Amino acid sequence: MILYTPLSESDIFPTAENVYTNRECITYNGRTCFVEKNSQGEYQLIQLLSTDPQDYLDENFIPGTIIQQR
Predict the structure, then answer these.
(1) Are 44 and 66 in contact (CB under 8 A)?
(2) Entry's Pfam families (predicted)?
(3) Between the CA atoms of 11, 14, 19 and 25, what dihedral angle is there, to the nearest 10 degrees?
(4) pLDDT digits (tens, 9 = 90+) for 49-68
(5) How many CA atoms lie within 13 A of 52 on its CB side?
């Protein structure tokens, strides 16, 4: 079986160790992203999900960026 997706294998087939309870899939500035809520209640960008290569050049979507608005 071949899956054409920007998601990682652990996101598609999670195991007991890979279950992320504080991660969400949101739309931020018109793009779909995986974010993780940290201890201060802020959202940190984990992964950008896009098929447009130009989206990955945008500095607002660097993994680890703190997202102020939700």
Answers:
(1) yes
(2) YlzJ (PF14035)
(3) 30
(4) 999 999 999 999 999 999 87
(5) 8
The residue assigned the tokens 């997706």 is 5
**Which residues on neighbouring strands pair with residue 34, listed in sequence order?**
25, 47
Encode pLDDT of 29-43 as tens digits. Answer: 999 999 998 888 889
Residue 3 corresponds to which amino acid?
Answer: L
**Three-state DSSP state, 67:** strand
Decide: helix, strand or coil at residue 70. Answer: coil
Residue pair 6/49 in contact by the 8 Å Cβ criterion: yes
Cα 36 to Cα 2, 4, 52, 54: the distances in Å are 28, 24, 23, 23
Return the domain boundaries, the chain: 9-67
